User: Which sequence fits this backbone?
């Protein structure tokens, strides 16, 4: 496969640790005298397996950490029965999911009902393959990596619909329609905020975007895209749109338990439900990884003298930070209504995301320095002010007034 | 049969299938499916000639524009079908045969 | 050659299913499959940008739009689609065969064609530069078209409700 990152340096260096399984297998197989093509192919399989295995392990860890973090936010403890501090809870969950009866409703189309969970996990794994996880570890380094990411995101929408429709009952169908409307609406701010990054970097290739952010201003401020005017706004827009794309609270109307049972996943039980879970969390990883790559500098260290820590450590650290933000927001905000959701996307996020493009251009052509900040910030501030005034006036009539009982 | 002929046959067959869908289907949205198949067949033709024909870079360019326009036309077509559905509560094309409401 | 052959066969099968099946949602899903396989075919033939754009736009937007509107316009009347199908399809086939004949005659009348060398394909930078310098009027025209379509579709599909007054 063309484009795999070159492997340099001694095999025991920490930087090349992720490559170790692949190199070991390739070494053993070529020692056994197998043909070159087969060795290469098996090496690629091992590389893909490594990435999938790492992220599935992270998924198991996240399912526990999420419950613990949410519990702490809600002033309780969370799972602590299965093993020390609940560390075996994912194992217990896995055993439970695997041993549950697999119920397929009578009115459901069994083939599509079976296909949908698989089709939801597949795009997330595909999307994870183009993310540069370390300096020497981009599973598939494509010239059009970002485009592949968004293309497989489009596949997720169709899978959600198939899941909802194939279940043959009303709640899943309604949940699927809402989920698709939400995903389609929030895909626009997602892509538009990523376009600013592409414009400034001049490439759709994700490793290039990360390498472009490898500088340090004034010796200690990293040149990450988040620390530019358009990147700050674009990063926030990307983050909000990512919450909506991943169907997380406060945008988890399609799967809110108090609203429509479990939305498109209602009629699923046992391992198929676990697959939906896996797909959702892997999608969360994929989109957070993309956010880290585009705006937080990927595997770049924040200070030049911290470069001795392996690059993939920095990547996973930043990923952990973003995921913690997701969990934090989940535990803090209530769910929004479907019409509020759509309004927010179309009337607020898309105009702001569109504004990142001229702001990035202005920032670039005024020298990318403090003058750039001075010129592009009003470009955001003025429309934001206008939008806020317009919305405040519109919503003034519907603002709630509280009347407290006189005691 | 060289690869170019094979792809051209494929695109001609896709076009014919799309045409059959447009001619025979009674649900308006299924007619739109046929139209999309026909547009797709034309795009395939462009890419086939770009890949196997004389050197030229215009093939993918044209297909990008064609995809954009096809998406736009699908959107407008579906909006019109939705309006007609609201009016007559049916997507059956045989019922949409008079301008009188 | 072999991957192209297998892909072509599956594309034809999926398209035939999209045209033949009576249940609208099945036909729409088979259309999504046809479009996805077409995107894979473009990727195999070396048009990477076009293949990914086809995936993103056709499968991710057009197919989703079609299934969405199928759900909105669902009625209990699916008998209409089934009644008299064989006759209609036969007539449709008879009407479509001359088109196939014309296309074949055009191809056969053009004589043998020399297979050119496999094009290296425009790199992304060249694509971008061509799009925005020599094809710029076309891009602007498509932009105007898409804006008009967006506004038009939103206006068309809007429900005619009276303006909501201030709630009490």
Assistant:
């Amino acid at each position: 496969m063309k484009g795999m990152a070159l492997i340099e340096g001694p095999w025991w260096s920490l930087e090349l640790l992720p490559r170790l399984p692949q190199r070991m297998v390739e070494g053993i197989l070529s020692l056994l005298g197998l043909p070159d093509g087969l060795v290469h192919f098996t090496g690629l399989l091992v590389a893909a397996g490594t990435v999938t295995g790492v992220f599935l392990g992270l998924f198991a860890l996240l399912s526990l950490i999420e419950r613990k973090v949410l519990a702490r936010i809600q002033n309780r403890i969370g799972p602590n029965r299965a093993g020390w501090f609940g560390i075996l809870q994912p194992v217990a969950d896995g055993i439970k999911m695997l041993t549950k009866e697999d119920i397929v409703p009578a009115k459901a189309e069994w083939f599509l009902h079976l296909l949908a969970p698989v089709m939801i996990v597949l795009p997330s794994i595909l999307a994870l393959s183009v993310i540069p996880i370390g300096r020497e570890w981009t599973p598939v380094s494509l010239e059009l990596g970002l485009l592949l990411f968004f293309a497989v995101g489009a596949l997720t929408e169709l899978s959600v619909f198939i899941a909802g429709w194939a279940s043959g009952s009303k709640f899943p169908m309604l949940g699927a329609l809402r989920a698709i409307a939400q995903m389609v609406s929030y895909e626009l701010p997602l892509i538009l905020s990523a376009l600013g990054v592409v414009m400034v970097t001049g490439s759709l290739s994700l490793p290039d975007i990360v390498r472009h952010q490898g500088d340090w201003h004034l010796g200690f401020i990293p040149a990450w895209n988040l620390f530019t005017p358009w990147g700050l706004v674009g990063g926030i827009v990307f983050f909000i749109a990512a919450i909506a794309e991943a169907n997380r609270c406060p945008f988890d109307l399609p799967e809110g338990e108090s609203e429509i049972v479990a939305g498109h996943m209602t009629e699923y039980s046992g391992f198929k439900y676990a697959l939906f879970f896996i797909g959702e969390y892997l999608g969360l990883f994929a989109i957070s990884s993309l956010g880290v790559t585009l705006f937080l500098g990927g595997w770049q260290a924040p200070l030049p003298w911290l470069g001795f820590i392996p690059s993939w450590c920095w990547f996973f650290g930043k990923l952990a930070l973003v995921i913690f933000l997701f969990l934090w927001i989940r535990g803090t905000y209530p769910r929004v209504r479907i019409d509020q959701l759509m309004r927010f996307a179309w009337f607020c996020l898309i105009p702001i995301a569109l504004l990142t493009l001229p702001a990035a251009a202005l920032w670039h052509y005024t020298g990318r320095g403090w003058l750039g900040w001075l010129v592009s910030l009003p470009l955001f501030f003025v429309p934001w002010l206008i939008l806020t005034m317009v919305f405040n006036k519109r919503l003034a009539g519907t603002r709630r007034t509280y009347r407290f009982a006189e005691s | 049969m060289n690869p170019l002929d094979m792809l051209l046959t494929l695109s001609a067959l896709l076009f014919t299938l799309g045409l059959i869908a447009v001619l025979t289907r009674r649900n308006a949205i299924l007619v739109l499916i046929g139209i999309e198949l026909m547009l797709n067949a034309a795009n395939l033709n462009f890419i086939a000639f770009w890949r196997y024909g004389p050197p030229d870079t215009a093939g993918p360019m044209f297909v990008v524009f064609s995809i954009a326009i096809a998406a736009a036309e699908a959107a407008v077509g579906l909006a019109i079908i939705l309006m007609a559905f609201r009016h007559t509560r049916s997507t059956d094309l045989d019922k949409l045969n008079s301008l009188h409401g | 050659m072999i991957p192209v052959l297998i892909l072509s066969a599956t594309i034809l099968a999926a398209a035939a299913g999209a045209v033949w099946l009576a249940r609208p949602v099945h036909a729409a899903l088979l259309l999504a499959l046809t479009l996805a396989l077409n995107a894979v075919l473009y990727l195999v033939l070396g048009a990477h940008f076009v293949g990914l754009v086809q995936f993103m736009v056709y499968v991710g937007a057009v197919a989703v739009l079609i299934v969405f509107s199928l759900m909105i316009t669902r009625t209990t009347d699916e008998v209409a689609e089934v009644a008299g199908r064989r006759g209609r399809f036969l007539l449709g086939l008879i009407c479509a065969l001359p088109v196939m004949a014309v296309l074949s005659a055009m191809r056969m009348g053009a004589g043998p064609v020399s297979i050119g060398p496999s094009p290296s394909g425009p790199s992304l930078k060249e694509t971008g530069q061509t799009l925005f310098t020599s094809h710029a009027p076309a891009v602007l025209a498509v932009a105007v078209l898409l804006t008009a379509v967006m506004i038009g579709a939103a206006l068309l599909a809007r429900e005619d409700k009276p303006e909501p007054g201030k709630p009490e």
Summary: Chain C touches chain B through 78 residues (CB under 8 Å). Residues 1 and 115 of chain C are 13 Å apart (CA to CA). The mean pLDDT of chain C is 85. The two ends of chain C are 70 Å apart (CA to CA).
